[in-house]
Amino acid sequence: MTVSAHSPAPGITVVTVAAPPVNALTAQGWFTLAEAVTNAGRDPETHVVVLRAEGRGFNAGVDIKEIQRDPGHTALIGANEGCAAAFSAVYDCAVPVIAAVQGFCLGGGVGLVGNADVVVASEDATFGLPEVDRGALGAATHLARLVPQHLMRALYYTAETISAKQLHHHGSVYAVVPREELDATALALARRIAAKDPRVIRAAKQAINGIDVQPVHRSYRFEQGFTFQLNLAGVSGTARQQFLDGGEKP
Fold first, then answer.
1. Which of 43, 91, 221, 235 has its CA 20 to 30 Å from the CA of residue 36?
2. Could you tell me which Pfam families the record lists for this protein (predicted)?
3. Do the Cβ atoms of 129 and 158 come closer than 8 Å?
4. What does the alpha-carbon distance between residue 57 and residue 197 come to, in Å, rounded to a whole number?
């Protein structure tokens, strides 16, 4: 797995995740991503961050195989702490974060996107939380930032996905474009933001977070508590193994 950062234009830092085959991240992968986003925001030359991924999908969540291989709970704790760190890094980044999403965006991917400032997506992008099917809970906090409350509940309970076009209808996806235009669209938007006075943009990010009605950090950690409960009850391990045995793919 690699997380890289580069600056394609003044004021813009692009953070790219590449974790074949489906961009499911290990515990360390989430921490590495968190560090990359945080460092980008701390760079005074960065006015805006674009978060993107290589491959057929944006993110498939946590690496279930890593958790299942661990006879104890170290990997699970690491994954949960890593996810919390990465989601927080996006939300707390000192500058706006634009998420550029292609293909599937599942589990932890929704956590990243839900905490981003702006979302652009390809026409084939789908978003969903398969947590219920995996014996876990989490990221309802972030899905609730993308869709209305009752739709969030329906998607959560059924583990169904929603398309980028549908999210655009709800106003949470800024633009839906052909996949080949995704990066260019994200960069065009980034350039418009980067052209503003960075002192004002950084202050605006703090101000908008300060008036947010949802305490995203506390809310997500509350959800995670039920994941630990389900693991202690033996429910989660069984669900994860069924998923791995079934060979289901995003």
1. 221
2. ECH_1
3. no
4. 34
